[in-house]
TrEMBL record, chain B:
GO terms for cellular component: extracellular space. Keywords: Cytokine, Secreted. One of its GO terms (molecular function) is cytokine activity. It comes from Pongo abelii. Induces cardiac myocyte hypertrophy in vitro. Binds to and activates the ILST/gp130 receptor. The keyword Secreted applies. This is Cardiotrophin-1. It is found in: Secreted.
Amino acid sequence: MPAGRRGPAAQSARQPPPLLPLLLLCVLGAPRAGSGAHTAVISPQDPTLLIGSSLLATCSVHGDPPGATAEGLYWTLNGRRLPPELSRVLNASTLALALANLNGSRQQSGDNLVCHARDGSILAGSCLYVGLPPEKPVNISCWSKNMKDLTCRWTPGAHGETFLHTNYSLKYKLRWYGQDNTCEEYHTVGPHSCHIPKDLALFTPYEIWVEATNRLGSARSDVLTLDILDVGSRLPLPSPATPGLSLLVRGKVVTTDPPPDVHVSRVGGLEDQLSVRWVSPPALKDFLFQAKYQIRYRVEDSVDWKVVDDVSNQTSCRLAGLKPGTVYFVQVRCNPFGIYGSKKAGIWSEWSHPTAASTPRSERPGPGGGACEPRGGEPSSGPVRRELKQFLGWLKKHAYCSNLSFRLYDQWRAWMQKSHKTRNQHRTRGSCPRADGARREGKASTQFVKVSTQTSAQLSSHGPDSRPPAGLQPQGRHQPPTS
Amino acid sequence: MSRREGSLEDPQADSSVSLLPHLEAKIRQTHSLAHLLTKYAEQLLQEYVQLQGDPFGLPSFSPPRLPVAGLSAPAPSHAGLPVHERLRLDAAALAALPPLLDAVCRRQAELNPRAPRLLRRLEDAARQARALGAAVEALLAALGAANRGPRAEPPAAAASAASATGVFPAKVLGLRVCGLYREWLSRTEGDLGQLLPGGSA
């Protein structure tokens, strides 16, 4: 059994066990006439004791024929035989047991102290309840999502374990009048919680407290006074290290469910933006609340959230400055504030379920172009393609060329290869066509860099009305993204 | 049916031969139910002894086999009885078990209030015993072997002697009831198995 704290030896008044339904006939502990068998009675029966206290128990044997002896009797506690030196024969038919410094009970149904005959058969048993009285419950906090019901939770006393079954009862009453009420729906949000589903008064303070009771005593928490509509408080806020406790600030009561129907979508072809839309929580529509929102988002394979904090009373927002071609997870939460014109905030709701969407890719590969990033066989074109990608992105933003893409680039390369093939028909002398193609592709890439430089120069010097090489002609003025 | 002691009437002579497949299906179904409930009874027993604490869970634990009002263990002579007589005894035991299991459940709710699974198993056991008992009685009626006499009611709550028992005796008694539940379910499964084609005497 686990070691317990010392305390004065005490044996509290034991609650008598209730009567069993009248179906069971128990003979254990009662003599059976004419059976030729011995039985016994243990005293005390089912005592309750403080951790660290002592116990003196006796096992008195009865039997037929009379004259049953205590010779050879022994004790076990939770199945373990107790040392003989703890026992002594009081008289011919009684064996005593002395236990000191008792530890807390191993199971809530009580420790099993059993008196055995010499042959090991069970003569009698008694269950010991060793523990501590309950401590005062603390940290009561309550919240409501709709001002029609109330959920409260608390923490058992500072040291927690009593080793005895301890019953917790949440009580509440209107502050200046009314009778005590007892909460009935327990364990709604954890082992020490209760839900009051209805009949709550507004604009009137309630007193709420928790009573803890076990076999060794009872304790009562401090009284929490709150008004269901009390959405602001001068009490200090919890530390940032424990943001989850924002729900538990005394006096802040009102919260809400997270916003439903959060949708995240692309903003046309804008590769660095996503649009987030949601619906105001339905519970707020019955009350004169305003609401403010927070959005947080992260890249798919990251754990770092970015928070958008300044989303006021609106139900949409556009995220900008995102990475192209990237999956983002987005969540929204709500804070009801401004109840009946007040400017005080309530409790932030939970975050909505994550919604995912991806930003458009900035470039797409052509049908025969393979992967966007070249594989190991083309190391020389890797840096070139990266640079090209960056250049095309720059062009789109600053040179209003919305239709530039890798696809156009690959079309241009195919055109270049064709024209090279035509020019080199006279020079080829049986060399490997593939190798030749690779060399030509390398040349083409190099030439493209020059061409692109010229293109950029052309555009910058001649403006949007110049005519770049075929396939690179802008088809319309590209609208700069809105911030 | 085979020529066993106490065998039922030759179904070939029965004019309602077309009911036999249905009856056989019901026997199989009831046998399967008994088999399943026997497994549940094992689980109930294991959970029960665990929550009472040692020595209840120890292999060497041998408490006195306390008599339980209204129900006894299957007698050694049970196996030698005719099958319909065995099934009548099975049905009677299954009818006596629910109030006993309910009583154990109530007591355990006081002793182990934070053991919802044990309490649920005890509640389910009472319900399942009723269901299986009713199924066995229906089979007996279909076989024409139902007990036509006045049905013996389980002992009412007010009829038996009452006593305020200590916790340890209550634990032992609950163990006894759970043990009887398992024994009678196992017995019922075996007796129903003998009604199936190929079942041995």
